Amino acid sequence: MFVNHPVSEQVITSEGYYVERYTLLGTKSLRRIQYKVGEPTILGAYTHFALFSVNGQHYGDITCRSLPAEIEAISPGPERIVRCRAFYAECAAEAQAIIQRTFPGDFA
To answer: For the whole model, what pTM was predicted?
Structure first.
């Protein structure tokens, strides 16, 4: 992962999530991203499409998880699209919940 922004804060939660927040250059906007530690990543039998490592520990982006086998098994078409969108919406909701638990003051 190539980062060209100043990180304001990095946290590894007790649940094993790596969460960071930073300001976007030239703005007052906060950006928050989250990764799950310990989940296999793209370097083997892996479950994420976006990853990075810190001190040799790999982290996979929660919102970029690979599709579960039951969705992968669906032939291309409307049903697969609906199921894929629902799966990634669940991933995004999980990520947002983790961010809010980690930085509750940002959402007060």
So the answer is: 0.72
